[in-house]
Design brief:
heterodimer; A: mainly alpha; MetI-like fold; 14 helices; 0% strand; globular; B: alpha+beta; Dipeptide-binding Protein, domain 3; 3 domains; seven-stranded mixed sheet; six-stranded mixed sheet; transmembrane (chain A); MetI-like (chain A)
């Protein structure tokens, strides 16, 4: 187990190094540059040159990269050209918002997906089953931003049931010791602020959770179907194991293995989906900031945010593999 | 099926409960305002965070919008116009040679931190701007000081080293500040209405290290003053800034003027234009800026208020004389006669937009009612082309894609309308669309390789040079002509010490430009804002000098 963790961590280094090189080349291949984005339509060539000199964009690419890498190794991700604040600060300021959103999206996906998939499998061929299959197909095929747009238009703009933008009602006075608004409200006993934060989360979380929900439903369904027909289940049943114990001990536990892997894989999907969802709902997380960074050609933010997201993703996946080992004894010996 | 219900029912109940609560919350809000529970918070959607809270380092609209509430300059504007008006300076005298400005200051004003506003504070600010060093001289920070003053006390950049017009500032008594210049700068008074030249508390600037902009190897990192402690004399004090989310300001109880009904301003950041409109429709915000022309009618018919600013911009069709097809003035005149500006404006630009005759909007002093004009006359256009031997003219038409500027909300539509007009007089148009930044801008301003093209400009303050000087003050790739007489006329007009003589000189220059016809001013599109029905008295200003203490909320 420890060896697994060590080996995976060691593998991370070349992966991230490669990613940093690719990112570095990619942002510099984007048309234009921060100078044109900063200075607008009457930028004199001299002014553009001076901005480029200021940020070091006029130096050879290799020299720029080694400088960047040197800074990275000291934990410095550079400074946003647009806001003048360190990239890491910008990331940390917005990360709680995105974590809050992805957790809720995942809760919706898992909380609805697993029971639905299980139900469909147990009633194979029924209306419930075919309905579930159709819905999960739809869930995967409808683009996230379109669903986000639809939800917002219907429930926020037309019906006014939910707010259309942001994390908190602008007129609400609330303190935020942790940056997780729902939790903050509970900690400071400002329950109305907590509730308001939940209301702001519902629509974006539904949009963001739609694809993972569909995937988890389908995987659960096929996995339960497979386990139901397995020899050991027949054996257990023949031995007279009770229905409830059979369901909980044998079928569910074994069927959950591929599902837990899938959940781990959804994290990447959620983080990429957050870019579109947060933009539609003007939700101030890392996703919408990243979208603005593309628009403003904010090199340092593009490179830094994607690198940090990659690190987070790798760590989450490692954690998933470890938990897999805890569920499945066969993994531990490797 | 029963099992399914068992799973689904709680979900449905929960959903109903959620929405039910939400709906009743909303109703409660609405009821509260209807029964006269005075709403004193004004929520305005900004398209981005301010770049900094220190207006000396500001040059974009969203930063100015916040700064206008917190800070005041020596000079303001007459409401609803671009004309200079007293603000922190009650009056000023300009010496005959245009080298000395004596500002008589308003007394009894103090900064938000209790520091007195006096002549020493004025000089402190001017000296601060002139002595910016290193990274603070970057055009992305001190853009306007560079542009107006022309340089710094000292600089590593040759073009900025000691080249400024500002010489010194002297506090002759607490209520009198004398600014001395090395050479005349007639637009100084107008320029001082820019938020960049706001008066800031010397105490706070020093205490929070306002000039501690670190940089060098990497991008500028803003100091604490610019991120958390902006201190001015304005009607609102800074309360908090959650980057990416909102900036909150509170009413200043010690303000020297009207504190007004609005006690709290929230600038909530919504970067997407559609999302801003929907936030207004959903009742989440009180108003927003840069309303898309396509949304104006829908919002108005849904009961929202549309407020227009007087335009302070120009959209033009430039005709590049480096292109041999366009060197003959008769060809340019033909193109001008071929374009039906009235229907162009009606079809492609926001309602209320005026057809342009000058390269400056009518709100600017040097605007001239008697410039040569070129009426829509396709027959005359054909005759002129025949005369010039260009009846089979083929010309590149460059236009930008994927961009919306305040003076040009939909470039593609403008291109289509003009192309049809040109085709009607027998001109063959070769469309050259390019992405706005950098390709389009680089080609127009950095190369001679273009034909006719669309571009424009939004002005900063009431100064003709701010338009025609930017366009025609010197030879430029964009226009491809060299006319020393015109360059000299514009340059001379800029340095007339006498305001009236200057206005006359600019008016003459505007006529000269329309005679030469380097391009065709098309229109001055109207920028619109949208508000909830109960927001009253929004002080729309052509130069966006909009301070919210005059707004009222109610039926």
């Amino acid at each position: 187990m420890t060896r697994l963790v060590l080996r995976r961590t060691a593998l991370l280094v070349p992966t991230l190094l490669g990613l940093s090189i690719l990112l570095f080349l990619w942002v510099r291949a984007l048309p234009g540059g921060p100078a044109t984005a900063l200075l607008g339509e009457r930028a004199t060539p001299e002014a553009v040159d001076r901005i480029n000199a200021l940020y070091g964009f006029d130096r050879p690419v290799l020299q720029q990269y080694t400088g960047y890498l040197g800074q990275l190794l000291q934990g410095n991700f550079g400074v946003s050209t647009r806001t003048g604040r360190p990239v890491l600060d910008e990331f940390l300021a917005r990360f709680p918002a995105t974590i809050e959103l992805t957790i809720l999206a995942l809760v919706i996906a898992v909380g609805v997906g697993i029971p639905l998939g299980y139900l469909a499998a147990r009633r194979q061929g029924s209306l419930v089953d075919s309905g579930t299959v159709v819905v999960s197909l739809l869930g995967v095929t409808i683009p996230v931003f379109f669903l986000a747009f639809l939800l917002k238009w219907l429930f926020a703009v037309q019906l006014g049931w939910f707010p259309s933008a942001g994390r908190q009602d602008p007129t609400m006075v609330a303190t935020h010791p942790t940056g997780f608004y729902v939790l903050d409200g509970l900690l400071t006993r400002e329950f109305d602020a907590s509730w308001d934060a939940v209301m702001h989360l519902v629509l974006p979380a539904l949009a963001l959770g739609s694809i993972p929900l569909a995937i988890i439903t389908r995987i659960t369904r096929s996995s339960v179907l497979e386990v139901q027909g397995a020899d050991y289940v027949r054996t257990a049943r023949a031995k007279g194991l009770g229905r409830v114990r059979l369901r909980n001990r044998v079928i569910l536990r074994n069927a959950m293995l591929p599902v837990s892997t899938t959940i781990g894989l959804q994290v990447g999907l959620l983080l990429s989906g957050a870019v579109l969802t947060e933009t539609v709902f003007a939700y101030p997380g890392i996703g919408s900031f990243l979208a603005q960074a593309v628009f403003n050609l904010d090199y340092a933010v593009l490179q830094g945010f994607i690198l940090i997201i990659a690190i987070v993703y790798a760590v989450v996946n490692l954690a998933v593999d470890v938990s897999y080992g805890l569920i499945d004894p066969r993994m531990r010996t490797r | 099926m029963k099992t399914f219900l068992r799973v689904a029912a709680p979900g449905a109940v929960l959903a109903l409960a959620l929405t039910g609560c939400a709906a009743s919350d909303r109703d409660a809000d609405a009821a509260q305002t209807e029964t006269g529970g005075a709403r004193d918070t004004f929520v305005f959607a900004a398209s981005s965070d301010p770049a900094s809270l220190d207006p000396a380092f500001a040059n974009d609209g969203e930063t100015f919008r916040v700064a206008r509430q917190i800070f005041e300059g020596l000079v303001g504007t007459v409401p609803g116009t671009a004309d200079p008006a007293p603000l922190l300076a009650e009056s000023w005298d300009v010496a005959d040679d245009g080298l000395e400005y004596t500002f008589h200051l308003k007394e009894g004003v103090s900064f938000h931190d209790g520091t007195d506003f006096d002549a020493d504070a004025v000089c402190f600010n001017f000296d601060r701007w002139n002595n910016f060093t290193g990274v603070m001289q970057s055009e992305s920070l001190s853009y306007y000081w560079q542009k107006v003053n022309g340089g710094f006390a000292s600089s590593d950049v040759p073009g900025l080293d000691g080249t400024g017009k500002y010489e010194s500032c002297e506090a002759t008594d607490p209520a009198t500040a004398v600014i001395r210049l090395a050479s005349p700068l007639p637009e100084l008074v107008s320029a001082l209405s820019l938020p960049s030249f706001s008066m800031q508390s010397p105490t706070a600037l020093e205490k929070y290290d306002a000039d501690g902009v670190s940089g060098g190897e990497e991008a500028p990192v803003l100091p604490e003053y610019a991120t958390a402690h902006p201190t001015g004399t304005g009607p609102y004090v800074f309360e908090s800034w959650s980057p990416g989310e909102q900036v909150v300001l509170a009413s200043n109880p010690d303000y020297w003027g009207e504190t007004g009904q609005i006690k709290k301003i929230v600038f909530t950041v919504i970067s997407d234009a559609t999302a801003r409109r929907q936030a207004l429709q959903a009742g989440d915000i009180d108003g927003y800026d840069l309303v898309g022309p396509a949304d104006v009618d829908a919002l108005a018919s849904a009961g929202f208020q549309i407020v227009n600013r007087d335009p302070f911009n120009v959209l033009y069709l430039a005709m590049n004389q480096a292109n041999p097809e366009l060197t003959d003035v008769r060809v340019r005149q033909a193109i001008a006669h071929a374009i039906d500006k009235k229907s162009l404006v009606a079809q492609t630009l926001p309602e209320g937009t005026e057809v342009a005759t000058n390269f400056v909007p009518p709100a600017v002093d040097g605007w001239n009612a008697d410039v040569p004009t070129y009426d829509y006359d396709p027959e005359k256009a054909k005759a002129l082309l025949a005369e010039a031997g260009k009846s089979n003219l083929t010309i590149d038409f460059n236009y930008p894609t994927n961009v919306s500027r305040p003076y040009m909300p939909t470039p593609e539509q403008v291109f289509t309308a003009i192309s049809a007009d040109l085709a009607a007089v027998g001109i063959t148009v070769n469309p050259v669309p390019e992405p706005w930044s950098p390709e389009y801008l680089d080609r127009m301003q950095g190369t001679p390789d273009h034909g006719i093209h669309l571009l424009g400009w939004t002005g900063d303050y009431n100064d003709t040079y701010n338009f025609i000087g930017v366009f025609f003050g010197a030879p430029a790739n964009e226009w491809g002509f060299d006319d020393p007489a015109l360059f000299k006329a514009i340059g001379d007009a800029r340095y007339q010490a006498d305001k009236e003589a200057q206005t006359a000189a600019y008016a003459a220059a505007n006529a000269q430009i329309m005679e030469l016809l380097p391009g065709i001013p098309l229109a001055h599109p109207v920028p619109s804002l949208a508000f909830k029905a109960d927001i009253h008295g929004y002080p729309a200003s052509p130069v966006q000098d909009e301070v919210y203490n005059v707004i009222t909320i109610g039926d």
